[in-house]
Each structure stands twice: as C-alpha cells, then as structure tokens.
Specification:
The chain is an all-alpha fold and 113 residues long. The chain is 81% helix and 0% strand.
Length: 113
C-alpha cells in the first residue's frame, strides 16, 4: 500500500504543478475576495450541477433559463476567467479519471442503466 500512497502523492504533486491547477486556485482566491460575486458564482454552480444530475425532460430549456438568469456573470471579467479556468481544470481531472477507470478495469456498465 505504501507504493500506492507514494504514487498518489506524486500524482497530486504533479497536478499541483500544472498551469490548470494553479490558474484555477489563483482565480478562486480572487473570486472569494469578492463575497457577493463568489456567492453568485456558487449559486450558479449549485443550480447547474443540480440540473446536470436531474432527469429533466426539458433540459435544454432549463439550461437556457439558467444561462439567462446568470447572464450577468459572463459580463464580469473575473467570473468569466474563473469559469474558464475551472473548466480547464475539470477537463484535466476528467482525463485522469477516465484513464484510471480504463486502465484499472473497474466495471461501470451498471451506471448506464
């Protein structure tokens, strides 16, 4: 198990040295320094995640409604930069996760319903 812990710590250190991680962390700190903006971003992220996890038959319309409700965030440079950085960081993490699931052969077919 020590080998796994060492490899995991090495991976974490590599992730923390990436441009994606550091840009995300830097922008997150800047956003948190503006409590109203941070609260609005959190509201958007919370509602967006709930919508993505739902089985809503009107997903496209609901997503459009959500985009309209929070359209002001896209006109604020800092929040726009934050969302872009968060997206890039999540893409990197998703790639790591997909590689792990493929190479370690964890059966996930049951998730497809």
């Amino acid at each position: 198990m020590k080998e796994i812990d060492d490899a995991l710590n090495a991976l974490i250190n590599v992730i923390k040295s990436t441009k994606e991680y550091n840009q995300y962390q830097t922008l997150l700190k800047k956003v948190k320094n503006e409590p109203e903006l941070y609260g609005r971003i959190c509201d958007y992220r919370r509602k967006s995640l709930a919508l993505q996890l739902s089985d809503n038959e009107n997903f496209i319309q609901e997503n459009n409604n959500l985009q309209n409700e929070f359209a002001d965030l896209l006109n604020i440079g800092l929040s726009n930069e934050y969302f872009a950085a968060e997206h890039q960081y999540c893409v990197m993490i998703r790639k790591i996760q997909e590689c792990y699931l493929e190479e370690i052969s964890i059966e996930t077919d049951f998730l497809e319903g």
